[in-house]
Write the structure tokens for this entry.
Amino acid sequence: MKLLVCAMEASSNIHLKELKKHLSDDVELYGVFDKELGTPLYDLTSLAIMGFVDAIKKIRFFFKLREELVKLAASCEKVLLMDSSGFNLPLAKKLRETYPNKEIIYYILPQAWAWKKGRVAKLEKYCSKLCSIIPFESEIYNDKNKITYVGHPLLDEIKVFKQKLSNSNKIAFMPGSRKTEITNLMPIFRELIKKIPNKEYILIIPAKFDDEYIKKIYGDLSDFTISKNTHEALIDTEYAFICSGTATLEAALIGTPFTLSYIAKKFDFFIGKLFVKLHYIGLANIFFEKMGKAALHSEFLQENVTVTNLLNDYNSLDKNSFFNHSKLLRDYLKNGSSQNVAKIIQN
């Protein structure tokens, strides 16, 4: 089988790597994906966008890329789109117009349950099958036959879960992956470690960052031990301070108690509050609310991200309760997703 794939994000390719393990050897990948997985049309590094000006410059390239993928789809039996709704939804529309009977599978759906619910109608119209990684996501869809909860990819990718709370004397710090997130949180984290003495401070940095970029963005790291393996570091540490994002769900699933903190640009935060009507921003807390339970962890946003607040949360959090409840989260998500998605593709 020839499978057209469009996986433009680094995270999507981590999920794709797990998925490929469950695809038979005769499934060939074509399109956009990490070069470790085959021979893509373009290396992922050429698709990276750095800022608004860069985005404007690359508009023509992305229109060209869409046309190339539509043309390539002619020789492929099925299509797999992953995340990146800004590109993949228009691509799905063009594919459906060009090939009315082509099977189009969307895996890692845009978070229409959080905002932009109008995308639901488009997904149902353009796609044949929708692979959901959020247990409650299907509630907002009309065509229940199209959408399937397949499990969550993190349950495939996290290989070890804590069996008990760690007393390693190590604390992890994850200030995010975007420049603004890092520059906002690192000064606070530097002050915070002065209030939590006699520990080893592990700074978890995205593997894609090179030494030059790290030196430029993070500043003085002499007080930190650097790790580029998120799961190993979270298993090894007894506590973590984490910027909002997938990392908070990873920590929750692994069983490492943590505090979430996030500082966005004021305008971006204002717009977010205007359109996103959720009580929490941490996925674990969103899931717990859906289960009818209290929040798993604290969330400090904007001006509430202070050394005092983070320190108080570290000292007051019931770590045993957190650990026990993290097991409920794994039960809620049930299983990994890659094997189920592979079955849908090969069915």
The two ends are 11 Å apart (CA to CA). The chain has 15 helices and twelve strands.
